[in-house]
Amino acid sequence: xxxxxxxxxxxxxxxxxxxxxxxxxxxxxxxxxxxxxxxxxxxxxxxxxxxxxxxxxxxxxxxxxxxxxxxxxxxxxxxxxxxxxxxxxxxxxxxxxxxxxxxxxxxxxxxxxxxxxxxxxxxxxxxxxxxxxxxxxxxxxxxxxxxxxxxxxxxxxxxxxxxxxxxxx
Amino acid sequence: xxxxxxxxxxxxxxxxxxxxxxxxxxxxxxxxxxxxxxxxxxxxxxxxxxxxxxxxxxxxxxxxxxxxxxxxxxxxxxxxxxxxxxxxxxxxxxxxxxxxxxxxxxxxxxxxxxxxxxxxxxxxxxxxxxxxxxxxxxxxxxxxxxxxxxxxxxxxxxxxxxxxxxxxx
DNA sequence: GCTGAAATATCCTGGTG
DNA sequence: CACCAGGATATTTCAGC
Lengths: 169, 169
Fold this sequence. Notes:
2 copies of one chain form a homodimer.
Chain A: H1 3-6, H2 14-25, H3 31-38, H4 42-54, E1 58-65, E2 74-81, H5 84-88, H6 90-94, E3 100-107, E4 112-118, H7 121-132, E5 139-150, H8 157-168
Antiparallel strand pairs in A: 2-4, 2-5, 3-4
Helix pairs in contact in A: 3-4
The first copy, chain A, binds a DNA duplex (17 and 17 nucleotides) through residues 30-33, 40-44, 46-47.
């Protein structure tokens, strides 16, 4: 039983990572085109992608929407502070507020962080009121997003390699 | 010249929204299947989707990845405070740090907010150091993500209708 | 926006190193 | 065990209406 025993699952090789990168950039390209990019046949690509899906690495394929073009001109991050019991259930508590696009529970100064969209300042106020109405222990800090310079940047092989170096030094 | 003049672009109708919802849930389904869901023929679906793409409503199709399954066990939000000139260029300044997945410039208590991933606490420390090295005026608050209860929740027609009510009351 | 045909892509089976 | 090759099936795309 040597070190390789623990590495019996060779994790993901370079081609898997290339497929991940390509699919993060454009999820609708066909297996044939992906195969051209990673130098593999279409069925081989299909098999690898299926493995990545089954392993839970790829969790789905989603269309990216620009909320501004649908009239949601305002995006804001809302920092939440609340008591323990309320925090623990933040997810359930905001599920009824569709303007809340992201919801994360945090360890640190803030209990949770929400990302919300709104069509106007009046609408944002309305959303904030609905959040505050959840529980009296909640207090919020609202920060308007001026610009989103990066969003959902793809995980890349280059990044993984750099991380390896950090681990090893 | 009546009110309808300004509404000459009928914005997006119910079927467009249904297509958007379907594509946010699964970007890989074919036009035929989409057509079945919204009660339209495949070519009609293709044309609407193309219009949504050209209007910038749909900005792309991306595979959703679970960073944990690739060894990135840690996710953190980093609040940034820095001087005006530095803030204005946050996007460019962090572009060289691939662990920074999201970067938003904010109006309010914090100047910017980053979402980062890391493989370990040591790796997170390394990322933080690289961020601090950008400029001496930067100070940070790091918040570890305990749980992501919602991420990129889809924009829905129901939501749009509710917002309309807010505007009108 | 619908129908029908041509081109293309996907999926499945089998075969090879 | 992973990859490639081929044919059956389904999908996209472009005509014409």
